[in-house]
Specification:
The structure is a homodimer. The first copy, chain A, is α/β, with parallel strands linked by helices. In chain A, the strands form 2 sheets. A 7-stranded mixed beta sheet of chain A has the order 5-2-1-6-7-9-8, with helices on both faces. A two-stranded antiparallel ribbon of chain A has the order 3-4. The first copy, chain A, has a single domain, classed as Rossmann fold (3-Layer(aba) Sandwich), CATH 3.40.50. Helix content of chain A is about 35%, strand content about 20%. Chain A is globular, with a radius of gyration of 15 Å. The model of chain A has no long low-confidence stretch (mean pLDDT about 95). Chains A and B meet through α1 and β4 of A and α1 and β4 of B.
């Protein structure tokens, strides 16, 4: 069974967190959510409270088939946690999927995962990232998948699922949720 | 300030719950989430745990500008709670927005809110609902708004927001989340 990690934190964009968790679990990917906060509780940018499966420290050092970082106004705080960048770099070095959406591609940039790879991001941060084409909903360059924002979170999650489980599995989930690409 | 209610329950479809909460709160709609379970905790169909603002009993009898019912495999259990249908009927009688997505239009049908109004719903239940056109992502008939599933939840939430705050506010949110209609 393929394994994916979704990193959660205070002021995460809720749709960007929930779409990958939901869509990957629908295809029986083993998704672990991990909180960067002191406890397992996180509160999103729109005040929705989630309980993560684990604390980030508990999964540090583990390798997943995909490491996914949602965006939101909490991203500048995430940038202060160097262990997030280290985890993403370790996944990149191992050829695993590294996926980020909205403002989160900033963390890929800062941590050295991007290294000039093509990407997309939210318009609010796109100008600060090299080779970032904010007109694209989803960009894949090798094992790095990026996306624009909450309104593209479903497409982003389906792109990650396609890489983990194949196009047929992703199309089945897209159909079951009535998503037309 | 406009007020909206999002009803939460075990096995709710998480994207269908989160999209309206997030998108309406982005436009400063006062959103209350209310749990049908014994406590305020609910666990969605994909295992994501939420903490609702209130228990359903605490908001029973209140009128909101919009009452929103997400779908998911928990809907047959919701059908056992007659007070949900009563709340939706009361909102309909008062001319408030009544919105349901995925399997939730079944509850509008059972409770007598639909009464032959045009609607859409998830393909798994559409055949059981009169005047249901499952080819449409969102259908509005008077004050009743329905939608198809998790993959149309953003469009659904923006339709509700358009009715509560106007097209300009909805377009601003759509732009901020990079959603292209």
């Amino acid at each position: 069974m393929k394994k994916a990690l979704v990193i959660l934190f205070d002021k995460v964009e809720e749709m960007e967190a929930v779409a990958p968790i939901d869509i990957l679990r629908r295809a029986r990917i083993d998704v672990t959510t991990a909180s960067l906060e002191d406890g397992r509780e996180v509160v999103g940018r729109s005040g929705i409270g989630f309980l993560a499966d684990k604390k980030f420290n508990e999964i540090k050092g583990e390798l997943f088939d995909a490491a996914i970082l949602p965006g939101g106004p909490g991203i500048p705080d995430v940038a202060q946690h160097s262990e997030v960048g280290e985890l993403l770099l370790a996944h990149d070095a191992a050829g695993k999927i590294v996926a980020a959406i909205c403002a989160a591609p900033m963390i890929l940039d800062i941590s050295g995962v991007l290294r000039g790879r093509k990407c997309t991001a939210h318009t609010s941060v796109a100008a600060d990232i090299e080779n970032c084409d904010e007109s694209k909903n989803v960009v894949e360059d090798g094992n790095v998948i990026t996306s624009r924002g909450a309104g593209t979170a479903t497409e982003f999650a389906l792109a990650v699922l396609t890489r983990l489980a194949g196009a047929e599995a992703a199309n089945d989930v897209a159909k079951s949720i009535c998503f037309v690409r």
